[in-house]
Specification:
The structure holds two protein chains of two kinds.
Chain A (H helix, E strand, L loop, with lengths): L1 H11 L1 H33 L7 E5 L3 H9 L9 E2 H8 L4 E13 L2 E6 L3 H4 L1 E2 L3 E2 L2 E4 L7 E4 L1 H7 L6 E2 L16 E7 L9 E5 H7 L3 E2 L2 E2 L6 H6 L6 E2 L1 E6 L5 H9 L6 E4 L1 H42 L3 H9 L4 H42 L10 H32 L6
Parallel strand pairs in A: 4-11, 8-10
Antiparallel strand pairs in A: 1-15, 1-16, 2-14, 3-4, 3-15, 5-6, 7-10, 8-11, 9-10, 12-13
Helix pairs in contact in A: 1-12, 2-10, 2-12, 10-13, 11-13, 12-13
Chain B lengths: L5 H5 L2 H4 L5 E9 L10 E10 L4 E5 L6 H8 L7 E6 L2 E2 L5 H11 E4 L11 H10 L2 H7 L2 H11 L16 H13 L5 E5 L7 H18 L2 E6 L10 E4 H4 L1 E4 L2
Parallel strand pairs in B: 3-8, 3-9, 6-7, 7-8
Antiparallel strand pairs in B: 1-2, 1-4, 2-10, 4-5
Helix pairs in contact in B: 5-8, 8-9
Classes of the chains: A alpha+beta, B alpha/beta.
The complex binds adenosine-5'-triphosphate and magnesium ion.
Chain lengths: 415, 250
């Protein structure tokens, strides 16, 4: 009955209570959203690559190398010459080495040249291999394999033609050499989903008529190109697997000391850690700010309770006259605060899920983070419980004041 | 478990004894917090009592301490000295919590106006004191049926119990307050100017209902007013100056 009356009292003040609940809900949604994004980003980053022991690229920062080679974020400042790659690939420690060549694009998606071995060697989420949802791998020079997101976003199917653009975000198309979609990979939740994969030779082929960033004269006929030797002169990076994990560091040192060219070999796991060390600061700041927003909303609620205390003295006197103890009045106010916070928490969680459902494709498109929509985990439930608990604590201040007022007022409050 | 039979419990044990429904002896009280603008009002009441089933009208000017006296009798504040006994129990001997419980069990309270929680239904308002008084709840028997009986007896519309109290007219609200004071037949009904918000005709009808129901329940009635015209219905009319001395300490 007390619960029913408390709810009735809240509904009777629907407007102010509604605003307070909304403020709490928005702050809770923000907090949970930031948490979701944070853990989602972490998981999706960590799951992006496995089974690769070393990533090799031109010398730069290890985080930078990781970002452009695996996440297709940013660009390589330098290439790795084909000779260097050959040297590395023929090292006795090396089990396999897959070259990748980046730099062209198709619409908003990046194009990656590689060898067919990529499909066998690339692993994600603890050892899962790429699979084809439709079609098959690279066979012909002008075959392309597209990721699930590319297919979904552009409505492509196997057999469709696809034209690669020169560079990133450019208006120059390699339209004289169209590709044909040979396969679509199954969704992985990794940047592969957002990549157009062609063979390394194809990357060479479409640049035959290009010299130093510009197109030269008339287009060479496709037949002539097919007859050419299309060995690349340089690649962007290489994924390397070693025969024995014990040899990783030997190989890494060898590559980093490679005399012909400044190279960098990184362990993906270590680089990921470094990345998180950088992102971690921002991450903590973000969590801190959103926690402050929740506190602000709760403070607003406390102020609201304080401001209504005076006009509710009459009501408190009625409760007292009916036999309620001052402690009951205190409990009543705390209960109301907890109900508001609970309503805010539930509404906030609902807002979060609605926001997730609506914003998920956007986040995925913008950051390549596929946020999972799943029932709230223990941590989130604890967060919600903590919000309700904090509301109870915050409401103690006005509740204690009501307690003292109801003791001092006696039974007959003049109105 | 079957519901406890209300009938045997109804036999009101306290009424069998001739002790007074209310007795004040050598009571002294002063509001705390003097100097905070309220000016430390105090009250002394050497002797005042109310017999079982008796109805008394307490007259006094505004600010003479009528409401203060009622707060004392209801045990919302505790006397500094003396005996405030309701149905033979000295309230000063009870802890604050026990006094609250005692009030819920034994005393029905009616205010001048704004008696009800406007957001709660009439039924919830009437049942509210029972929430804090298990014995009175048992005496009331089946709550919903008792609410309906009281509403009908007090001339409230049949759909009144479900209506939010705030929607009723002032006169109807006062009658709901009577129903709330009477449910579970408490031995003492205390009313602080319950008719002052009503016009003369409504006052008369209201008092008729109040007396009828209090008599039915066998409750004593102590009503406070500044209007001597109401006196004729009561067994006794008392002026506050005659029973209590006000003290104002600057
Ligand atoms: N809660 C309180 N705290 C301190 N002083 C109070 C309190 N309630 C009443 N008083 C003081 O006690 C005095 C008597 O007030 P009280 O309400 O008992 O008079 P009353 O006879 O009921 O007057 P009215 O007819 O206007 O209701 C006043 O001077 C008032 O200031
Ligand atoms: Mg008064």
């Amino acid at each position: 009955m007390i619960l029913r009356l408390a709810i009735g009292s809240l509904f009777a003040r629907a407007l102010t209570v509604g605003m307070t609940v909304l403020a709490i809900a928005l702050s809770v949604a923000l907090f949970l959203g930031v948490e979701k994004l944070r853990t989602g980003a972490r998981a999706s980053f960590a799951d992006t690559i496995s089974g690769t022991d070393l990533i090799v690229g031109a010398r730069s920062g290890s985080v930078q190398l990781l970002l452009y080679s695996v996440f297709r974020i940013g660009n390589a400042t330098n290439n790795v010459s084909w000779e260097s790659f050959q040297d590395i690939a023929s090292r006795p420690e090396v089990d396999w080495a897959v070259p990748i060549s980046l730099g062209d694009s198709h619409r908003e998606f990046r194009v990656m040249g590689t060898t067919p071995e990529f499909f066998r060697r690339y692993e994600y989420r603890g050892g899962r291999s790429l699979e084809f949802a439709e079609g098959r791998g690279l066979d012909d020079l002008y075959d392309a394999v597209i990721g699930a997101d590319v297919a979904a976003a552009l409505g492509y199917e196997v057999g469709d033609p696809i034209v690669v653009s020169h560079g990133l975000a450019s208006f120059t198309d390699h339209d004289d050499q169209p590709f044909r979609i040979a396969g679509i990979t199954a969704r992985t939740g990794t940047p592969v989903d957002r990549t157009v994969i062609v063979s390394l030779e194809a990357i060479e082929a479409i640049h035959v008529d290009w010299r130093g960033g510009g197109k030269t004269g008339a287009a060479t006929p496709v037949e002539a190109i097919r007859a050419m030797e299309l060995t690349p002169t340089a690649i962007t990076a290489a994924l390397v697997g070693v025969k024995s994990r014990l040899r990783i560091f030997t190989l890494q040192r060898w590559i980093n000391d490679y005399p012909e060219e400044p190279l960098l070999a990184i362990l993906p796991g270590v680089a990921l850690q470094e990345l998180w060390a950088i992102v971690g600061v921002a991450e903590t700041a973000l969590v801190g700010v959103s926690a402050m927003v929740v506190l602000t909303a709760l403070l607003g609620m406390t102020a609201m309770i304080f401001s209504t205390l005076n006009e509710r003295r009459r009501e408190m006197a009625i409760w007292r006259a009916m036999g309620a103890r001052p402690a009951t009045i205190l409990g009543l106010l705390v209960l109301e605060a907890m109900l508001m916070a609970a309503a805010g928490a539930v509404l906030g969680a609902a807002l979060l899920y609605a926001g997730l459902a609506a914003g998920r494709p956007l986040v995925d498109a913008a950051f390549g983070i596929w946020l999972p929509i799943e029932p709230p985990n223990a941590r989130e439930l604890w967060t919600l419980a903590a919000v309700i608990g904090a509301a109870a604590l915050a409401s103690l201040l006005p509740a204690l004041r009501a307690y003292r007022l109801s003791l001092a007022d006696g039974m007959m409050v003049r109105t | 478990m079957s519901r406890p039979e209300p009938a045997p419990a109804l036999a009101p044990a306290p009424r069998a004894e001739p002790r007074p429904a209310l007795a004040l002896r050598d009571v002294a009280f002063a509001w705390p917090g003097a100097g905070r603008g309220r000016g430390g009002f105090g009250l002394r009441c050497p002797d005042f009592s109310l017999a079982q089933g008796e109805s008394v009208l307490l007259l006094g000017a505004s600010g003479s301490g009528k409401s203060t006296l009622l707060s004392l009798i209801c045990g919302i504040v505790a006397a500094d000295a003396g005996v405030v006994a309701v149905a033979g129990t000295d309230l000063r001997g009870l802890s604050a919590g026990a006094r609250d419980r005692f009030r819920a069990e034994r005393i029905g309270v009616i205010f001048q106006q704004f008696n009800l929680l406007p957001y709660a239904s009439v039924s919830d308002n009437i049942l509210l004191p029972l929430r804090f008084a298990p014995e009175r709840r048992a005496r009331a028997g089946e709550g919903a049926a008792e609410v309906r009986r009281l509403c009908a007896a007090l001339g409230l519309p049949a759909d009144a119990p479900e209506t939010p109290a705030g929607r009723l007219s002032v006169g109807q609200q006062q009658r709901v307050a009577v129903a709330r004071a009477l449910i579970g037949r408490p031995g003492l009904i205390v009313a602080d100017e319950p008719t002052s918000a009503l016009d003369a005709a409504a006052q008369d009808a209201f008092l008729g209902l109040l007396f009828g129901q209090a008599e039915d329940a066998g409750s004593s009635l102590l009503m406070v007013s500044h209007d001597p015209r109401l006196g004729e219905r009561f067994d006794r009319v008392v002026r506050i100056e005659d029973i209590a001395a006000a003290e104002r300490n600057p």
